[in-house]
Amino acid sequence: MAFCSRNSRNIINNLKSKVGLSRLMKPSSDCCYTSCLNNTNRCRFLAPQLRNPDSHSQNKGHFFCFQRFQSTTTEQHFASLPNGEHNQVLDFPGGNVVFSPEMQFLSESPGVYNPCYRVLDDNGQLISNSIFVQVSEEIAVKMYSNMATLQILDTIFYEAQRQGRISFYATTIGEEAINIASAAALTADDIVVPQYREPGVLLWRGFTLQEFANQCFGNKDDYGKGRQMPIHYGSNKHNYFTVSSTIATQIPHAVGAAYSLKMDKRDACAVTYFGDGGTSEGDFHAALNFAAVTESPVIFICRNNGWAISTPTSDQFRSDGIAVRGQAYGVRSIRVDGNDALAMYSAVHTAREMAVHEHRPILIEAVTYRVGHHSTSDDSTKYRPANEIEWWRMERDPVTRFRKWIETNGWWSGEAESQLRSSIQNQLLQAIQIAERAEKPPVKDLFTDVYDNIPWHLREQEKMVRETINRHPKDYPADVPF
Amino acid sequence: MLGIARQKMLEQSSKMIRPVVSVLRSYSSAAKQMTVRAALNSALDEEMSADSKVFLMGEEVGEYQGAYKITKGLLDKYGPERVLDTPITEAGFTGIAVGAAYYGLKPVVEFMTFNFSMQAIDHIINSAAKSNYMSAGQISVPIVFRGPNGAAAGVGAQHSQCYAAWYAACPGLKVLTPYNSEDARGLLKAAIRDPDPVVFLENELLYGESFPISDEVLDSSFCLPIGKAKIERKGKHVTIVAYSKMVGYSLQAAEILEKDGIDAEVINLRSIRPLDRSTINNSVRKTNRLVTVEEAFPQHGVGAEICACVLEESFAYLDAPVERIAGADVPMPYAANLERMAVPQVEDIVRAAKRACYRSLQTFSNTGVKLNTVGRCWHQVNNKWEEIVRNFVTLLIQAL
């Protein structure tokens, strides 16, 4: 059993900080902290373990009062324990522990799987009595246009790679709702630390089709100065950290950024995305643990799309998905239908409120399916049945589902659809043509940004390279400017 | 469990460290003394008070006052928001510090020893060193990674490796190795102010050592330039290049060599990346002979890099092959006698300098392979022969 080995001064200090925070809390959260103060530190350490498994707030429908229901149940439960010799409590470091003469192992699997929050059914119709955050017509239409744009963008760039015009591409097909709906629920100040399957977030924030094309072609207008593979977008002005290929390293980065936002007292949070495979990395566990301990305003969004290249989730982990892991680290979590744009929007919107105002991390497990191959270097029909892929592509398409909802509301039509699609198609093809013909980055960009200022030895090397190019111009490509 | 093992290791090594001396001890002469520990502590304190974006992170840096007491008093002064005690996860807290640096804060990450930095090395290299380049200047990482590096006393193989060569191989990082208190203060301040990621390699056995320090160094704006080596001792017969603890050994060797009429120039590298190639080369062009000294493993080490850069720029000036002194090519043994043989000692440096000056012979094995071993036993066996031959050669020269 892992006990915190902190001395009593630390516990008192933490208690003081809790008292301070509770003054800033919304009324709904006061109960938990009041009960905490009454029982010194007992509630803080025990409340999660004693949580009543029947009170799944999602089913109760009182989304915003989640905390209050949990803690009052816990409070009563704790108070009702008889003080017989079978129920002794001892204060180990880390909290009071109730004894039991029955040897009971915690089961490795819950009897019931963690339910999944959804609001629109498979036909895009609103489920009755569902709780969700209302979306205006303007936002909903913008969300849909972006989802459709993302779909077309992916298709065309994938084709461009197959034609040999770019070296590499990875699509987001099947996960458009996660990308766009989560982006729509955030503000422009929120820092996004992506993995590599979230270009939709950048699209929502205003990255143009031309800018996407420039990065994929690595030309002189690429914000990355041609230093990275395609799809490794990054843009300071959109608060979107540059994509890094290493899996899960972005998760602790987001916690660090969130901690900094908290230190700066900003009204913003950090958001990071990762796949089901990424949750196996050590960085995931350290980051969640840290976020809980440092009370950082960070939202972890896991795109559980069933596959990590060729590894299915049954080979990746044996837990009931990802959301239950959040609980193990003391992080509030929820499982959401990732193909339901409205549910994603609601969940991220609420998570953001909690993260920013309560200074806590939130874990969102968005369940979905990776319709495309892992990347252009992969042929997923080699390890999964083609009909499974087709079924998810056609029957479970998140874009179609959301379109049905906005059509039901009278906000969209077939005409608008064809207009949008043809317009985006043309814009994209044009952007690709322009990007392909543009010059590559100049030779000097090979040596800049290694350090803040160019050190003398790199300046010398640049000079040597230029001299060599001057002596042997036919050995160097014509489209690389000097 | 690992925490307990480390605690025991710390208790053991702290017994071997000299007792902490007070920050300033003024003598009847004007020269003040300061331990390296106090120098580092004062540098951190001053930089934290000058810039509110600077914050510390690491295991035991707060409540415990620092595993080696480098961060003593800082938690009380700056509070838990700026001095963070982290859970035991180097990969985790390094990633988090890098994320904070991406945002714009200036973290100073402490590794209990740099051996544990291997658990975080992906973040140091792939997240910190390469980010400015990969993001085309959009993400700068003003982070400092500091901690004790290299051999301590009786801590075994997994606590004794020197990482200077590993980190110095990576473009995007800066790697600093202070020796005395002036180095410690000046270089740490420079590192914290630098917008690039810096790996700051200290030495556990130097923490308790006291060095004289001038008033200029004590000033809060004092800063040393990164990438400049210091000539600790001027000489004209042979150049000895070293970093960290080996600088002290080289200075002692120079004293011994002086008695034999060899005037050695000792260079304290201070900065491994960028390497001060011009100072090294200028010195070699003056003395024509070079000895490199490091505690680390010999292959692909700092000494190898120095040899290469001298060959590239000053080949014609060399009058003798470069002598490279390094630690033995074995994981560090624990037993005190074996440990002593696995790291260079002052005598090894003296002998290498003499070989470079043609004042003693190279030793050859039966197969004719030149042996420049560090192991003491070889030299004990050959000492007698060296003396005999040296006397003979001296006679010959006199006769001519």
Describe the structure.
Chain A: It is found in: Mitochondrion matrix. Chain A: This is 3-methyl-2-oxobutanoate dehydrogenase (2-methylpropanoyl-transferring). Chain A: Belongs to the BCKDHA family. Chain A: Its EC number is 1.2.4.4. Chain A: Residues 146-443 form the Dehydrogenase E1 component domain. The complex is a heterodimer of chains A (482) and B (400). Chain A has 482 residues and is of the alpha/beta class. Chain A contains 18 helices and 9 strands. In chain A, strands 3-4-5-9-8 form a 5-stranded parallel beta sheet, sandwiched between helices. Chain A has a two-stranded antiparallel ribbon with strand order 1-2. In chain A, strand 8, helix 14 (341-358) and strand 9 (362-367) form a beta-alpha-beta unit. With 400 residues, chain B is an alpha/beta fold. Chain B has 2 domains: 2-218, Rossmann fold (3-Layer(aba) Sandwich); 230-372, 3-Layer(aba) Sandwich (Rossmann fold), CATH 3.40.50. Helices cover 41% and strands 16% of the residues of chain B. Chain B has helices at residues 2-16, 36-50, 74-78, 90-103, 121-129, 131-134, 164-168, 181-193, 215-218, 245-259, 277-287, 302-314, 336-342, 346-356, 376-399; strands at 25-26, 32-35, 54-58, 83-85, 106-110, 144-148, 174-176, 198-202, 210-213, 230-233, 238-242, 264-268, 271-273, 290-293, 323-325, 363-364, 370-371. In chain B, strand 1 (25-26) and strand 2 form a beta hairpin. Chain B is elongated. Chains A and B meet through helix 1, helix 10 and helix 11 of A and helix 4, helix 5 and helix 6 of B.
